[in-house]
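Entry 14. Ran structure prediction on the chain below.
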Amino acid sequence: MFRGLRHKKSFLIIRNLIAVELVAYGIFVLLAIPFHWSKIYLNYFGPVAYFIPFNVLELIGLAAFQIVVILFVVTRSLRDDNIGELIKSGEHERLEFKTTMRWDVKRGQVNKELEKGVMKTVAAFMNSQGGQLVIGVDDQRGINGIGHDFDSLIKKSRDGFENHFNNIFGSMIGPEFRRHVRLSFHELGDKEVCLVQVERARRPAYLKTDNGEDFFIRTGNATTSLKVSQAAAYLADWHQR
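Output, structure tokens:
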């Protein structure tokens, strides 16, 4: 599966680089059209123009533009490749996968319990040593993507996804903890996944439920709820760390 993704990724990189070249040369052609650019350059930068002719400046600008965009394309591609390697490593104490954020694939509808499961994992990471949650990947490391989540939102985009994440995070955990969490989106072949990176919080994070508040931690590759007595002992040790 991942070998196929790498082939697709190579194709996308080449395609994007070709597009960059076409855009760069298009800009070069536009600048080359007689539009008095050289006269403007001479009028405003006369002394500099004596040492650096306008045509040389054009070439320098074209080269700089190409380098910047190529670096952007390659860096973004490498970042997505790192996500692939992360997924290959499988779930562990600081890594968990969720098939979706809110869309129940089996029922074909939105399921609020799935949102609660995502927030439960995030809270557990904050109460432990931090961790990473990949949304759009199942337990068998299959890439499902977050397309169904997008379709279930009013704003069907990355912004809409992050806005909804922020809303449920604020209501279930609290907006004051949001600075410990960072979202990023990555393309794997024709699918898109969301990486949720969670830092260890400086104070305990509780998950708000209909029955009050619950306290979760990570134990191995699982998220565990602590009873009141267990949480008290855990929190006593927390302040000594």
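Residues 2-88 form one domain. Will compare against last week's run tomorrow.
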